[in-house]
Amino acid sequence: MQSIRVPHVLLVLKAIVVCAIPGITYAQSIWSGLDVAFSKAPFADPTEASSQDRITDQVWITRQTKQGIYNIRQEPFYIADFSPADTEWAFEGLNFNPDTVSAEAYSSLNFSDWKTALGGQGALVNNILNRPGVVHLITDDIYIDIQFTAWGQSGEGGEVAYLRGAPPATSVEVAGVVTDTQLFLAACRNAATGQTVFTQSVTSDGSWNCTANGLEVESGDGVLKLLRGQAVCDAGPCEISGDMSGVQATTVICRNVSTAQSVFVAPTANTFDCVDAGLSVQDQQFLQVVIFSTALPTGPGILELSFDDPVAGFHDEITVHGVVVDAVEAQPREMQGVIVNSH
Asked: Which among 123, 134, 157 is positioned nearest to 44, based on CA atoms?
């Protein structure tokens, strides 16, 4: 557990990292290295997802019990001198390619269909294993390092295995706003790296920006946000809601610190509404919003928050154990999966 001490505020955040979001396509990019392993066992069903390398939404590589690999997303079976559809290939020292090939040097390579790139019928079996290559996903415009490590010959059930590059990490800006609120504290934690940043006296319009405060976030990281402020709604009913960019919220906990009422909110994509979830708020009351965001957790999450703010005139502690559930009927002092203690 890491802690940060600032005047009048004690903040302790502890969270487990959430998994990377699958299925993202990165157009016009280079996937270097051999960090992803794919294998299809002999006689495995090529229509099963476990027998397919779903590289993007357009390209799903697999193999039947014999012949070559194909893109089952776009074609029903292997077609010689064409498959896999929507791809082109280049391999080290073959088909007029240099002795060293890489995705980064794609502009110097001579691409062709998969079979031709490996020397054609008869030569393919001798050339395919452990030879560095590059595959170009044409529609996605992605160049990927690749190297085959297993190849079942005729009568061996269509085994295939290879290593390939992964999508590069992408920087994400994490920011947002809470309506009818003047924020005086925003704390952000990257659960994947453990980095925590905060700022006091944030904004009078309820806006916040974790990235501007120095938080470094890559696509797929779990991000926890803690926002504290005061309701500003003297002209009418308080509408405490919010939206954010750069992340997908999974659960939000809204708390009226002045009354000790807390509610779960099941956000819609990047937006949430505390009042719709049952939170009662009046002008000048103190508020607290905790946001879990980015990928859905793969297992139980743990969150411990502790705050001490004599200026605001309250001390409270929130402990959350177990998987965060969907929106529930929240009572002022207790919720399913959440225990709230005020002092």
From this structure: 157
